[in-house]
C-alpha cells in the first residue's frame, strides 16, 4: 500500500492514528481528510504538519462529489475511517447530524472506495473505526464479544451501528475488503473537554463543579488512546478480511470512582490538599437512556494479533493530566467561543 487516507484525523483519536502512521511508515503517503468541525483541530497535528509523507485536505464526508473527486485524484489503497460525530449528549439534542455524518458520510466513503477500486480489491482495505456502544448496555456482569448482538440505545450508537452494518453489507454484497474495530472509551492527550475526563480536568483547573450524571455508578472500560492507535495499525495491516475486532482495556471504572481518582491525582500534581478537587463533585440530572455498563472482551485481538494495552490506567491518567497541565493554551483555545454556548445549554438546566 502506498497511499493511506485517514478520515477525522484532526480529532482526538484520529490525530494519534495519523501521527502513528506518519512516523511509522515514512515510505507511505498519509492523507488526512477532515471537515474541521468543533471537534477537529489542526493544532493536534502541529508536530507533523511539515512531514514529507503527510497531507491534509479539508473536506466534508457528507459531500459525495467532493469525496469521489479526492478518491479519484489520490487513489488511496487503504482507508481508515474515523470521522464522526462522537458525543452521545450532542446526539440526544441533534440526532440528524449524526445520521448525516456517521451514516451518509460512511456510505459516501464506501461508494468512493468501491468506485476507484472497481472490484479489483487486491492489496486494498477499508478499515471502519467503531465503538462498543453498538452492543448496547451490560448488566453488572459479562462482556461484549464480537458475537454480541447489536442493541444500540442512543442516537449516536444507533448511527454507529448503522454505519457498521453498511460496511459489512459492502463486504457481503460487493466483496469490498473491510475490517471493523469496536473500541471502548478512550482517554489521553487532545481529548475534547465535552467528554468526562477532560471536562473534569478543565473544571478542576477552573474551580467549577464536576457534573456527575445520575448516581455516578455507570461503568466504562477505559483505554489509553495511543493503545487504540496501535490496535488500529495492527488490525488495518493484519486483521482478517471481513472481520471485526473488539478493543478494550480490561479496565472498568464506575464514573464516581474514576472522578475521585482523577481528583486525587490533580490535587497531588497541583500541590493542593487532598479533597480540594473532590469537593467540586456535583450529582446532576441523568443522561436520558444512559447505558449502565460497557466492558469489552478483547481476547480475539489479543490472541490473533498479540495486542494488549501498554500502560496501566494510573500511568495513562497521570500522562493525560500532565499533558493537559503542559498544554493549557490548547485547552483555553478549544473552550473559548462555541464551547461556552454548548456548556451553558448542557449543564445549566
Ligand atoms: P472526535 O469527535 O474527537 O473527532 C471527530 C473528527 O471527525 C473531528 O476531527 C471532526 O472534525 C471530524 N468530522 C466530523 N464530521 C465530519 C465530516 N462530516 N466530514 C469530515 N470530518 C468530520 O472523535 P473521536 O473521539 O476521536 O472518535 C473518532 C472515531 O472513533 C469515531 O468514529 C468514534 O465513533 C470512534 N470511537 C471513539 C471512542 C472514544 O472514546 N472517543 C471510542 C470508540 C470509538
Ligand atoms: O464506549 C465508547 C464511547 O465512549 C465512544 O464511542 C464515544 O464516542 C465516546 O464519547 C464515549 O462515550 P461515553 O458516553 O461513554 O463518554 P462520556 O465521556 O461522554 O461519558 C462517560 C461516562 O460519564 C458516561 O457514563 C456518562 C458520564 N458523564 C459524562 C459527562 C460528559 C457524566 O457523568 N457527566 C458528564 O458531564
Written overview of the protein:
There is one protein chain. With 349 residues, this protein is α/β, with parallel strands linked by helices. It has a domain of 233 residues: Rossmann fold. Helix content is 43%, strand content 16%. It is built from twelve helices and twelve strands. The strands form three sheets. It has a seven-stranded parallel beta sheet, with helices on both faces. A three-stranded mixed beta sheet has the order 7-9-11. α8 packs across α10. It starts with a strand and ends with a helix. The site of nicotinamide-adenine-dinucleotide (NAD) has 29 residues, from α1, α4, β5 and β7. The site of nicotinamide-adenine-dinucleotide has 29 residues, from α1, α4, β5 and β7.
Question: Which descriptors would you attach to this protein?
Answer:
binds nicotinamide-adenine-dinucleotide, binds 2'deoxy-thymidine-5'-diphospho-alpha-D-glucose, three-stranded mixed β-sheet, Rossmann fold, seven-stranded parallel β-sheet, alpha/beta
List the helices and strands and how they pair.
Blueprint: E1 3-7, H1 12-24, E2 29-34, E3 54-58, H2 64-74, E4 78-81, H3 88-93, H4 95-117, E5 125-131, H5 155-174, E6 178-183, E7 185-187, H6 196-205, E8 210-213, E9 219-224, H7 225-238, E10 244-247, E11 252-254, H8 255-269, E12 281-284, H9 299-305, H10 313-326, H11 328-335, H12 338-347
Parallel strand pairs: 1-2, 1-4, 2-3, 4-5, 5-6, 6-10, 7-9, 8-12
Antiparallel strand pairs: 9-11
Helix pairs in contact: 1-7, 2-4, 4-5, 6-8, 8-10
Amino acid at each position: 500500500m502506498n497511499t493511506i487516507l485517514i478520515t477525522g484525523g484532526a480529532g482526538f483519536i484520529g490525530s494519534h492514528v495519523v501521527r502513528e502512521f506518519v512516523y511509522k511508515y515514512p515510505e507511505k503517503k498519509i492523507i488526512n481528510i477532515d471537515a474541521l468541525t468543533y471537534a477537529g483541530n489542526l493544532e493536534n497535528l502541529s508536530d507533523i504538519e511539515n512531514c514529507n509523507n503527510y497531507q491534509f485536505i479539508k473536506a466534508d464526508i457528507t459531500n459525495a462529489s467532493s469525496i469521489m473527486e479526492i478518491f479519484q485524484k489520490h487513489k488511496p489503497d487503504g482507508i481508515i475511517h474515523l470521522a464522526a460525530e462522537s458525543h452521545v449528549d450532542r446526539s440526544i439534542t441533534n440526532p440528524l447530524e449524526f445520521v448525516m455524518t456517521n451514516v451518509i458520510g460512511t456510505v459516501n466513503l464506501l461508494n468512493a472506495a468501491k468506485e476507484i477500486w472497481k472490484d479489483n480489491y487486491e492489496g486494498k482495505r477499508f478499515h471502519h473505526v467503531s465503538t462498543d456502544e453498538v452492543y448496547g448496555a451490560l448488566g453488572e456482569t459479562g462482556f461484549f464479544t464480537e458475537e454480541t448482538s447489536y442493541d444500540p440505545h442512543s442516537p449516536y450508537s444507533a448511527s454507529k451501528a448503522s454505519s457498521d452494518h453498511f460496511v459489512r453489507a459492502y463486504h457481503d454484497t460487493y466483496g469490498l475488503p473491510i475490517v471493523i474495530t469496536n473500541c471502548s472509551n478512550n482517554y489521553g492527550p487532545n481529548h475534547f473537554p465535552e467528554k468526562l475526563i477532560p471536562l473534569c480536568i478543565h473544571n478542576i483547573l477552573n474551580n467549577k463543579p464536576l457534573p456527575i450524571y445520575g448516581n455516578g455508578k455507570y461503568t466504562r472500560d477505559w483505554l489509553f488512546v495511543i493503545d487504540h492507535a496501535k490496535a488500529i495499525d495492527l488490525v488495518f495491516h493484519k486483521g482478517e478480511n471481513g472481520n471485526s475486532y473488539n478493543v478494550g482495556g480490561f479496565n472498568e471504572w464506575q464514573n464516581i470512582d474514576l472522578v475521585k481518582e482523577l481528583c486525587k491525582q490533580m490535587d497531588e500534581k497541583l500541590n493542593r490538599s487532598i479533597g480540594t478537587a473532590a469537593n467540586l463533585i456535583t450529582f446532576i440530572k441523568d443522561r436520558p437512556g444512559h447505558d449502565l455498563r460497557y466492558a469489552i472482551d478483547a481476547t480475539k485481538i489479543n490472541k490473533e494479533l498479540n495486542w494488549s494495552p501498554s500502560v496501566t490506567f494510573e500511568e495513562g491518567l497521570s500522562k493525560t493530566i500532565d499533558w493537559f497541565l503542559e498544554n493549557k493554551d490548547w485547552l483555553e483555545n478549544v473552550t473559548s467561543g462555541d464551547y461556552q454556548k454548548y456548556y451553558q445549554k448542557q449543564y445549566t438546566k
